[in-house]
């Protein structure tokens, strides 16, 4: 048991705007929780118990009138990448799975934040670059938030902090 307590449990977050062709992805849904069967990658080290690869993708289309953008439609999704996510069954349990799920949930929080920023933005004819700039900002914030989560929960080992983060993220998703 002492060995398990000293393991580093960390999550690696892929943040991509274009999914790999033919790569399996799991879209985030409130009712669909991750299971260990979703983690199909091979463990890459012995320091981590599990790794979650998740990220945001987006698509958009514009309507122009008189060479001016008059409408823009967005699709933003949170993805989990099974082939890039892995775990070591000999050291993982439901607590660690819950920690990994929350990383995916945090990705969804930032997908929603991205959508909110896109809807509030008044775009010029340089929409592509403006969307990419917002996306890059969101990715940076997402990465910082994921790192803060791991730091404050000590990779799920701080149970009190883990429970506080679960409540925090639940409220953000309401």
UniProtKB/TrEMBL annotation:
Checking InterPro entries in the record gives: DUF922
Top-rank taxon: Bacteria
Please state what the protein is called.
Answer: DUF922 domain-containing protein
Q: Source species, please? A: Cellulophaga tyrosinoxydans
């Amino acid at each position: 048991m002492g060995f398990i307590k000293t393991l580093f449990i960390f999550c690696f977050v892929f943040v991509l705007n274009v999914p790999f062709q033919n790569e399996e992805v799991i879209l985030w849904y409130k009712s669909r929780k991750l299971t260990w069967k979703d983690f199909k990658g091979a463990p890459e080290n012995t320091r981590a118990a599990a790794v979650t690869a998740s990220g945001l993708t987006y698509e958009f289309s514009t309507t122009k009138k008189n060479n001016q953008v008059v409408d823009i439609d967005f699709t933003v999704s949170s993805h989990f990448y099974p082939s890039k996510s892995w775990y070591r069954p000999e050291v993982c349990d439901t607590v660690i799975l819950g920690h990994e799920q929350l990383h995916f949930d945090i990705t969804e929080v930032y997908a929603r934040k991205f959508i909110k920023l896109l809807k509030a933005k008044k775009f010029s004819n340089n929409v592509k670059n403006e969307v990419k700039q917002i996306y890059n900002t969101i990715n940076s914030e997402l990465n910082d938030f994921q790192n803060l989560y791991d730091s404050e929960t000590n990779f799920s080992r701080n149970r009190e902090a883990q429970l506080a983060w679960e409540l925090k993220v639940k409220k953000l998703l309401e």
